[in-house]
Amino acid sequence: MPDDPDFLARSFKYLQDNVRRSGPAAAASYTLIGGIVLFGGVGYALDEWRGTSPAFLLGGLLLGLVVGFYDLAKTVFKK
Amino acid sequence: MLAQEHATEHAAAGKFDAGETIIEHVSNSSIDHPLIHLPKVFGIDLSVTKHVFMLWLVAAIVFVLVTTIVRRYLKSGRQVPTGPMNALEAIVTWVRDDIVQPNVGKKWVGTWTPLILTFFIFILCSNAIGLIPLFEVVALLDRAILHSSPDSFLGRVIHGGTTATANFNVTAALATITFGAIIVAGSKAHGFVKHWMNLVPHGLAWPIYILLIPIEIMGLFVRPFALTMRLAANMTGGHIAILAILSFVFLFAEMFGSALAGVGVGLVVSVPLAVGISTLEIIVVLVQAYVFTLLTAVFIGMAINVHH
After folding, report:
1. Which of A7, B28, B166, B263 has an alpha carbon 20 to 30 Å from B236's alpha carbon atom?
2. Chain A to chain B, count of Cβ pairs less than 8 Å apart?
């Protein structure tokens, strides 16, 4: 470890800084996964209920992808 | 159905069923055997189950701890906080300066810090309490000294403590608060109507809006859903891993027909690995509480600072 006494404090500060800046990216990625899981799940449930497998599941997955990628694009093209 | 048949088959043969045992430990207690029986209100059974009891316990601990610390500090009349108040102040300033302010902005930091701080401390405590084998210690005492009946309140409680935040209903309730907070934040900053208009970019051709508005509305629900799944799945996952590794002891004892084999596997593999994962869990407990609050702050900030 370097002799610098503030080494640990500075490391934590930089870590905190990077985590903070990655917040919006994390939000977008969770929305992407969440959208696919949520709408895929709703589609699967509808298929089970109506016996239309796999129409609603595929539709739900596609819808989830669209919503997730739209949110991702909004985060990326913000500036 | 298949799992149930599988379980009864195992139980009939008197064998150890790892899956059944693990699920029993991480899931909520059945509504047929609650800890405290309460009447039905509007068709909803209000009986207190294991997870509800853990929620109350966490709420009580946080309330008593924080009020005691703050009252003692105020009574002492000192300007500089010492001891536990120092730690509490460090957490409060860290949440305010490093989570809320960078996302929400200087103007609204005072409005949203209390909510996000409450989220952080509550989630952190309920995550952490799931790691502490409180009720298992009580169960040991009970077996040695108290000998309470299995039908008594104590007898039902000592089936094991759980993590309340590993229940999807709990995290869904927390995410619903976030969902409400996002709308309130947007409405307070821009006015109710303007907040909803801010959801979609301005100045586009009208056919685009037919596509964008439904997508944005669906996105509104996806965000809290992602929060719900993330926290509950992460908290359940670690516990299942620890229990699965510990169940090697019984599986191996059964496979070789001797307790010695089980103890050997336990000493060499299960216990060291479980200790390792428990250490990781301590980090997970902190990180998950942090991520939930950070994402809440980001979402609230997105409603306040609109750029299109």
Report:
1. B263
2. 65
Phi, psi angle pair for A49, to nearest 5°: -75, -50
B305 phi, psi to nearest 5 deg: -95, 90
Total of domains in chain A: 1
pLDDT score of A10: 87
Residue B305 Cα, gap to closest chain A Cα (Å): 11
Global pTM value: 0.85
Q: Residue B262 — φ and ψ, nearest 5°?
A: -60, -45
The verdict on A68 touching B (C-beta cutoff 8 Å) is: yes
Structural domain boundaries enclosing A67: 22-76
Is A24 in Cβ contact with B291 (below 8 Å)?
no
Is some CB atom of chain B closer than 8 A to the CB atom of A58?
Answer: no
- Contact list, B222 vs chain A (CB under 8 Å): 31, 34-35, 38, 64, 67-68, 71
What are the residues whose beta carbons fall under 8 Å from the beta carbon of B38, sequence distance 6 or more?
A: B45, B46, B47, B48
Look up residue B135 and give its two tokens: 């009720």
- Average pLDDT per 10 consecutive residues for chain B, totaling 308 residues: 50 70 77 73 78 89 94 86 88 92 90 94 91 80 75 67 84 94 93 86 82 88 91 89 89 86 89 92 92 92 81
The two structure tokens encoding residue B293: 């609050």
| Tokens matching residue B43 | 């068709």
